[in-house]
Structure formats: structure tokens, C-alpha cells
Amino acid sequence: MKRGFYTIMSAQFFSSLADNALFIGAVALLKSSGALDWQKAALVPMFALFYVLLAPFVGAFADAQPKGRVMFYSNAIKVVGCLMMLFGSHPLLAYAVVGLGAAAYSPAKYGILTELLPPSQLVKANGWIEGLTIASIILGVLLGGQLIAPTISSFLLAFDFPFIDTGVTTPPDAAISVLVLIYAIAAWINTRIPLTGVAMRPLPRNLFSLLPDFRSCNRRLWDDKLGQISLATTTLFWGVSGNLRYIVLAWAAAALGYGVTQASSLVGVVAIGTAAGAVLASMRMRLDMAPRVMPLGIIMGLLVICLIFVRDLWVAVPFLIVLGAIGGFMVVPMNALLQHRGHNLMGAGRSIAVQNFNEQACILGFGFLYSLSTKWGLSAFGAITGFGLIVAATMWLIQRWYRSNLQRYPKEVEALLTLAREDKSHNHH
After folding, report:
1. What is the pTM of this model?
2. How many CB atoms lie within 10 A of CB 174?
3. Which class does domain 211-429 fall in?
């Protein structure tokens, strides 16, 4: 691997670490200011908002500038979001600004890989990035939980600067101040990313001219007989896992009586399971076998419902690991299949933008649904049950859809599966 790759990896790690710790910090901040439950649940969709709104544009923006610079700007936007949170803006608004930074970051992070590395190393690099992202989620959630815990926060709050009133007076404030520093480290590492020498594609004068292109890419992927199935499955998976963070926090508070710090470590447990499932799938599954994992999605939905009966920590930990592992095992082959179809239909950058748009729209939809159901007075258990039912039913429908494709278009599906079997460059995901 080239030197520049490790620089990207470390920048990505610090940026994602702070993103995940900030989520816990923002929940604690809303909690301490006495915000209603639906507002805490709304954090998830607010983060996804700009991903959805800016999806047609961020890919083009990432291609118009050196990617290292785009990643630097993105982290700078995240710092602004954190400072807004510190200095009294509404946490939901400030968190949406951090989401804006993350939306610009994503295509640059994946796009630079294709510029920096030969195709033969892409799979390996993707594996590394996924692994590191999951590690940063686990560590980030734990870090967020620890920063607001009494021991560390009292230590942080004891720091006093002479002549400067920092305004940092509560544990969430202290946590967010530390995260500003971590984002700043990530931004500094971004400045060390080498130029790849790839020609920049200037932005079109009329930005809205990007919309028809994006629309046609989206349509192309949804029309593809394998692309549509893998896109529907991964979209559902990310819709679930994006909201699962908050659901586990809400469930741990209702079932185990946990505060944010204790509950946050349980979110980490789910991520450990996901990582294990992802590793197992990358060893066991081939690209053409991806459709076989669909029943796991139905099981995942039903397990989310079973969560409401778990009232004991000793049962909860293995249960959450299994829940995470099923998700991880399902998403890796489906994601690889989607990348393969996207790459063949329109190229990697555009296909990532389409994928991000659909996934984040699903997180947004599920998040709003969950947030509204808590606003209308549904208990955490009721909301979780509804959520699990929707997931299981949707996954069952996707499975039916695939079966009907096999019956109606047998030749087309078989030709695509043969292509996936032969695709050497994308096979070892």
C-alpha cells in the first residue's frame, strides 16, 4: 500500500471517531437541557438530511478539487458544527451542520482510493476502510460515553484558562470541546494527503445540470435486475443500522434503566458483532452467492422485536452481538454486489453517490418515523416493535421481488450472476 493510503486511513479514523462520540455527546446535551424524547430520536435523521439533499452535488464537488482538500474542508465544517453546539445553537441544527461536513467527506474518501490505488488493491483497501470505520464506531461510542461520565468530565471541567471564560460548564460541553480537538487533528492529517496527479473535473456553471445525470444514474441502478435487489437490501440495512444506535440507547434506558454512558457501551457491542459478521462473510461468500443472504434480513427484523423481552445484561450482550453479526454477514456480499453492478453501469463515484442518497434517505425516513412515534406517545418498546415489523416485512417483500425476477427474467438474471462469477476484480470482498 502506498504511504498516502495510511494518511487517508488515519484521517478517516479520527474523523469517524469524533462523529460517533459526538452523537453520544449530543444525546447527553439534549438530555441535560431537558429536551423531549422525540428530539433525541431526531438526531439521526438530522445528520442524514444533507446527505440526501446534496447527494447529486457532493460527488461532482469531490471531483472538482484535490480530494485531500475536500476532506480538509469537510472536517472544518464539522468543527463549526461542534462550536455551534457549544455556543448555544440548538443541538439538532448544529448536528445537521456536522452531517453536512460528513456528506461532503464520503465521496472524497472513497473516490481518492480509486485515484491512489490500482484496481487489484481496491478490495483490500475497502476492507481496511470498513474495518477501521467499524473500529472507530465502537471506540467513538465508548469515547463519547466515557467523556460524559463523571470521572473524566470532572477532570476536564477542572481545567481553567486564565482570563478566558470558555463557557464550558457541563459534562456534554467538556466532551464536545475534546471532539473539536479530534476533528482539528483529522483536518491537519488531511493537509498531509499527497496530490494524486489526477486531473480535476471543473464544476459545471449551472449546478442544477447535475440533477438529470444523478436521476438517470439512480434510475439505471434501480432498473438493473441484480442492482435493484442489492440496492434495496443495503438501503434497508443502513436504514436499520443508522437508527439502531439510538434504538439501543432508548431500549437500554427503558429495559435496564441505564444512563447514556452505560448504554453507549452496548451500542459498541452491536458494532463488534457487525465486524465479526462482516469478516466471516468476506471469507465465506462469493459475489454471485449474495442473494442467498436475504432471509437474514427477515431474521434481523424479528430479532429487533425480541429485544423488548431482554431485561438482563448477560442475555443482552450475546443477543446484541448476534444481531450485529447477522447484519454484517448480510451487508458485505450485498454491498460488494452493488459496487460491482454500479461500477459496470456508471463508474464508482456516481454509484457511491446514488447508494449514499438511497441509504441516507432510508435512515431519514426511518428516523422521522421513529421520532414521530415517540412524539405521539408510543413507548420505546412499542416503537421498537413497529420498527422490527417494518424491517422484517420489507425484507420479505425484497425476497419476493427477487423470486419474481428469477421467474420473469431468468436469462437476464442468470447472465448478470455469470458476470458476477467471472468478475475477478471485485470478487474478494
Report:
1. 0.81
2. 23
3. mainly alpha
